[in-house]
């Protein structure tokens, strides 16, 4: 078996603000090997982007981070800043939502795509910009776009530029954080096809973060659903999307209507209430105040990840816990069995 490109072990992230300590991520564990594609889904505020930022230590100063984040066997949380700077772009790169805010408005596209090559590959500016044109071509942009400024490109073209930058130093891992959220459906489909093709051609590990389960189910092999800073379900993406085990994952799936079904059009499904305040989580299962199938014990019982009969995992008391097969490495197969406390 290939060595994991990314291995997250019991990651916990706590922000400090005027309201005191805010636990944004509470015991997340994941593992990706070369060529793996993992989708991370959940409502805003569930901790998805915090997990992504923690991988390369892009969190605000003063944030408390514990656990381990192994990138090709090295713990990024323990790296010196010099080593971390060398790993960013070269070992792992992030494609952020809103490329217009990530690109420098006063520099041409070629110069910005060339920047990681100058810093990490030690290419001359001329050689780096020549290579930048090739990278733009790989993501479907014509050569002349290299001379454009960001405001001269469409939203989809800017996202392609960000993907070209992410690929510049041939990283082993790409994290796409809501990279297609603000795009129209046609451009979104083009960007998703591009990402899937690059993973297949280059054997890159891909983590794709979105609130849209349908997009993740079509793009990624595995799906992890987050709620209140924890992963509450993980399994093969199409199975989770079609027949989720956790009530929250079921609600996310039901939020996407079936095209052509008049009943769903007239009576769209939804989920009452708002996500809990991470600084004041309810007792027991944090989803129980919104859960449509809540039981009395849900408000008092700390729920760990449970293994279902089909090998999938969910943090719900209604999932009957099954023993792992002999010789099975349970820790690598799914998020750590952390309790919802």
TrEMBL record:
<keyword id="KW-0472">Membrane</keyword>
<dbReference type="InterPro" id="IPR003593">
    <property type="entry name" value="AAA+_ATPase"/>
</dbReference>
<keyword id="KW-0547">Nucleotide-binding</keyword>
<keyword id="KW-0067">ATP-binding</keyword>
<keyword id="KW-1003">Cell membrane</keyword>
<dbReference type="InterPro" id="IPR013563">
    <property type="entry name" value="Oligopep_ABC_C"/>
</dbReference>
<dbReference type="Pfam" id="PF08352">
    <property type="entry name" value="oligo_HPY"/>
</dbReference>
<dbReference type="InterPro" id="IPR003439">
    <property type="entry name" value="ABC_transporter-like_ATP-bd"/>
</dbReference>
<feature type="compositionally biased region" description="Basic and acidic residues">
    <location>
        <begin position="321"/>
        <end position="333"/>
    </location>
</feature>
<dbReference type="InterPro" id="IPR027417">
    <property type="entry name" value="P-loop_NTPase"/>
</dbReference>
<dbReference type="InterPro" id="IPR050388">
    <property type="entry name" value="ABC_Ni/Peptide_Import"/>
</dbReference>
<feature type="compositionally biased region" description="Low complexity">
    <location>
        <begin position="270"/>
        <end position="281"/>
    </location>
</feature>
<comment type="similarity">
    <text>Belongs to the ABC transporter superfamily.</text>
</comment>
<feature type="domain" description="ABC transporter">
    <location>
        <begin position="6"/>
        <end position="253"/>
    </location>
</feature>
<dbReference type="GO" id="GO:0005524">
    <property type="term" value="F:ATP binding"/>
</dbReference>
<protein>
    <submittedName>
        <fullName>ABC transporter ATP-binding protein</fullName>
    </submittedName>
</protein>
<dbReference type="Pfam" id="PF00005">
    <property type="entry name" value="ABC_tran"/>
</dbReference>
<feature type="region of interest" description="Disordered">
    <location>
        <begin position="259"/>
        <end position="281"/>
    </location>
</feature>
<feature type="region of interest" description="Disordered">
    <location>
        <begin position="321"/>
        <end position="341"/>
    </location>
</feature>
<dbReference type="InterPro" id="IPR017871">
    <property type="entry name" value="ABC_transporter-like_CS"/>
</dbReference>
<keyword id="KW-0813">Transport</keyword>
